[in-house]
TrEMBL record, chains A, B:
SMART domains: FCD, HTH_GNTR. Pfam families: FCD, GntR. The keyword Methyltransferase does not apply. Keywords: DNA-binding, Transcription, Transcription regulation. Residues 1-26 are annotated as: Disordered. Residues 32-99 form the HTH gntR-type domain. This is GntR family transcriptional regulator. It comes from the Bacteria. The lineage of its organism: Bacteria, Pseudomonadati, Pseudomonadota, Alphaproteobacteria, Rhodobacterales.
Length: 250, 250
DNA sequence: CGAATCGGCAATGTATACATAGCTGACCGA
DNA sequence: TCGGTCAGCTATGTATACATTGCCGATTCG
């Protein structure tokens, strides 16, 4: 009846800003508390497609799947439902949500609004020299990736760049909100990744936003990053629309 | 051992847009499921100050307070913690969070970014005639309230106007996110309400935003509402700073 | 043959039981 | 007297038990 594993570490991880993307990686899964374990594990499976959209499972089944009792699983499921990754239908189990095109658009709208604000705040706070260097290196690498046609690598770096700037915004609540919505767009992004054209425009826009950030110009940063997001979001929606004919799951 | 009350109604209220603010009113509290009951009840008590910042209670005490078992109370508390209204310290109970000036600033930053986006979307969708009429009436009433110096009434209408426009944005996720952050700024707003000068500027800005909305001009709406929020947020922060000397609770 | 109602069943929501971990305070040793 | 360690207690986290609710299917009536 030992509830959790060895449980050597703290579970209450309200740490400092933490720039890490809320991404699949799932290293120290065994050393978390059960609730967190359930949450991260399920989230991971959903985001990577291991639990496909439409999949429906009972709370009991999930608990069995994770070797836990229903209580922590249930708490994790509630959280996932609040994030919009699953839907709980009272008598029918929890279903991994399929993202319609409209859902994806809605998510991007929220996500972009938040990210632009984060960029603004970062601009206002100003970048330290080491931040400038690090971000600059990322942009260099992205351009390299573009040059050699490695769009997967490019996409990773893109995420990293964005989340790095967000991490510098100094507003923990904003960051948390962004992370939640980030998770939702991730699946769709993955899907259309291979379809994307080489992101020359994005590279240019990044450079231009970066310049505004360096200059500490909030208004300019807002304007430029907003334009970038608008265009990129539209492009992504187009790709998605084309790739699933407006009906499909992500 | 009867879990919930008569429970005549649905708890899975993923209904249509619903313009209702997530406000204290708490009518049909008895007919909800226990978890929702706990959540709304606690939230109500916190937002209205009945549970003052700094108050610390054990899960058991909360359960007793609400005449429920720990399970639904715990789930509600987790939700409140995610919203940032309380803090759960593993061995010390749940504490109603005090909002520092910085917290309040952070909250406003997120809230404003989201609200501006919602206004943009509403502009893009366009207002129906009845919406125009309703919103117009609200603005009239607000100006009346200003004229007779009824700032409480003005503030209610202000909330109503904003949430009404948000409700028309057509993005449920955005609305949900806004509501969560709305709850957090509410307490501080209440506090500074009596200190506010008569909001002539706000009235003008509302009119101007309203015009942009009517025109269906997304960019203009963004610009104007963003300016409004910027100014209003700054003003509120100033008032708060003055009223509690930068340390205090809200 | 179709539709409506009733009964059984199973999944959830809630309550409770239980075990662990961390804090408090006391006692012992220096 | 002060500091350190250990033991006990209590709050939480997890597991389990239990009751309700709502669906599905079967049966019966029109």
């Amino acid at each position: 009846m030992r509830p959790a594993e060895p449980t050597g570490s703290r579970k209450n991880d309200r740490g400092k800003p933490r720039s890490s993307r809320p991404v699949p990686s799932l290293q120290g899964l065994t050393e978390m508390a059960a609730r967190e374990r359930a949450y991260h594990d399920l989230r991971y499976r959903i985001l990577t497609g291991r639990l496909a959209p439409g999949t429906t499972l009972l709370e009991t089944e999930l608990a069995a799947l994770l070797s836990l009792s229903r209580t922590p699983v249930r708490e994790a499921v509630i959280k996932l439902a609040e994030e919009g990754l699953v839907e709980v239908r009272p008598r029918h189990g929890v279903t991994v949500k399929a993202l319609s095109l409209q859902d994806f658009g809605n998510i991007l709208d929220v996500f972009s609004a938040l990210e632009v604000r984060a960029f603004e705040l970062t601009a206002e706070r100003g970048l330290r020299i080491e931040d400038v260097r690090r971000l600059g290196r990322m942009l260099d690498e992205m351009e390299n990736a573009t040059a050699v046609g490695d769009i997967t690598r490019w996409s990773e770096l893109d995420d990293e760049f964005h989340s790095e700037v967000v991490a510098l915004c100094g507003n923990q609540r904003l960051q948390t909100a962004i992370n939640a919505f980030w998770g939702q767009q991730y699946r769709a992004r993955l899907m259309i990744l291979p379809l994307r054209p080489m992101p020359v425009e994005s590279n240019d826009e990044h450079r231009s936003t970066f310049a505004a950030l360096q200059a500490g110009d909030r208004a300019l940063t807002r304007e430029r990053h907003n334009a970038h997001r608008d265009r990129a979001d539209r492009q992504q929606l187009d790709l998605l629309r084309r790739s699933l004919g407006s009906n499909g799951l992500a």
